[in-house]
Structures are given as C-alpha cells and as structure tokens.
Amino acid sequence: MKKFDVTALGELLIDFTDNGKSAQGNTLFEANPGGAPCNVLAMLNKCGHPTAFIGKVGKDIFGLKLKSTLEEVGINTSNLIVDENARTTLAFVQTFEDGDRDFSFFRNPGADMLLTAQEVDEELIRDSRIFHFGTLSMTHDGVREATKRAIAVAKESGAVISFDPNLRPPLWNSLEDAKVQVAYGLGQCDVLKISDNEIQWFTGEEDFDAGIAKLRKEYDIPLILLSMGRDGSRAYYKDLKVEAAPFLQESTIETTGAGDTFGGSCLHYILKYGLDDLDESRLKEMLTFANAAASIVTTRKGALRVMPEIEEVESFIQSRN
C-alpha cells in the first residue's frame, strides 16, 4: 500500500492577483499562494487523497508563507526545500473583463528553478500511485534534470505519470525550446491534461479533434483530457471521445487555477476507477465533476486555498440539473 496517492514536482509561487483599485486609483494586488502542481494537489486533498510536493522556495516572507499554506491544506512538505540563498518566484496576474488573464513573472532566477536532481526524494516518489508534473520545471537545465530524474523513478516504481504542459511563453527562451520539452512530457505520460490553445499551438491544427489525432499518432497516451474553457471539456480514451458541457456562471471573476482544478478532479477519478477500465459513463462523470469544480473556482480569488469540497461540487451539479 503506497503512502501517497499523488506526488507532484514543480513551481510553488505567489500569484499577485489584480484586486481592484486603491482610493488613489492604483491597482491593488492580492498575494495568493499558487503554482499549478500544488493547485492540482490542493484539489486532490479536498477529494480525500494524501499528496506530497517536491520543489523549492526561498527563505523569505513568501517562501515561508507558501510552506505554511501547503501544510495548512494538508500537502506533505517533507521534500519542499527552503533555500537561504534564493528568492521565491513571484507572478503578477492581470485579469481582463472576460476573466482571462496575463502574467508577469519575477523569476531570474526564482527558487523553483534551482531544484537539483540530488535534492529529489526518490523514496517519496516510489511511495506514490501517481506522479504529476508540468513544463515550468523544464525551462532550465538543473530543474529539468531533476524533473526527468523524478519521472524515471516514478516509471520504475509503476506510478501513473500525469502531465500538464501549462504553457507560459514568457518563461521560455524560445517557444521552440518549449516544444521540445512538451514533446518529452508527451512521450512519458499516461494521462495528459491539455488546454485548447496548447493543442493548437503544439500541433498547428485549429480543429481540436485533428490536433488530438495528430498527438495520438505520435505518442502512446492512454487518456487525453482537453479543457476548452467556456466550451467545456473532452476526454479521449481508446476509441471513445466523451464531451461534457461547461458550468458557466455570471459570478466568474478570474480563471486562475481553473485548469488545475479540472486536472486534479480528473486525477481523483483515475484514483477511484483506475486507468484500464474507464468507460463512457465514468468518463462523463469525471468531466462533469471536473467542469463543475473548475467553474466554482472561477468565482474565487486564487486557487490553492479555495478549492471546493466534493459535497460542494456535487451539490452545485445537482442545482444545475
């Protein structure tokens, strides 16, 4: 019996989220704990799953706040390294009227970039059913080596490998470099969560089905989950394509963390049903729950500390039915 259901590796940072104007007309930013891998873990914790995080923060007010926040939401921090000589990565998030957003990163270098392969706790990974990663831990050589080592250990131990490209163009030297690393992730994963704009960017296909077909021809990925924002989501599994409608809300204020909430919710169902025996009914159940959970998070500032409980998501779905 493995101790952790999901262990993730990657970035942990502060999202300074646009939160209105001061009396002087200046933009106010709220310091929200964030980082895609931990957002995923936070949702899984709400679903009752033991989780752990591998990463690095600076020994500064932000890094210490982040460590205490992970402990507060129940994520194991035994392999979260607090570096005395580094600064915690910061992201400033500007939100537009439609809920979409733009990012400015302060990460040159940020502590998350400085994780090394030698600092990865391999036993933690071996004791996990799923290993999850993205590409922000693959933008630079040292942390890229750490990520690839962690993936290798996870594969050796029989863990399911989950990957979310989570493309952030400003953090790459070039988008060609990003494509190389995304391709590596695609070649390693059993579960892929990818967004509509990412599939179009990577494959060059405007049509989502055509883009997914292109991926499946080149990569052997058992389950592909496509998030489409206001258009809902799809799952591609064996010869099945299942689609679920979105839960649109007038009270949406921002979309930060919605994709991570969706991804974490889907991993909850993979832990529940396994990856070998999914069918149309289970995939529909998975997507419906994940869409609803993501919709709830769009009505809240930040993501990591405000993930919904299972009962809240189920109640929300029933209210819409």
Placed side by side, the strands forming the largest sheet appear as 5-4-1-8-9-10-11-12-13
Number of helices: 10
Q: Which strand-content bin applies to the residues? A: 25-35%
Q: What is the N-to-C order of secondary-structure elements (H for helix, E for strand)?
A: EEEHEHEEEHEHEHEHHEEEHHH
Indicate the percent of residues in helices.
Answer: 25-40%
Structural class: alpha/beta
- What is the terminal-to-terminal distance? 38 Å
The description of the largest β-sheet is: 9 strands, mixed
Low-confidence stretches: none
Report the principal-axis shape. Answer: globular
Rounded average pLDDT: 95
- Rg from Cα: 18 Å
The tally of beta strands, per DSSP, is 13
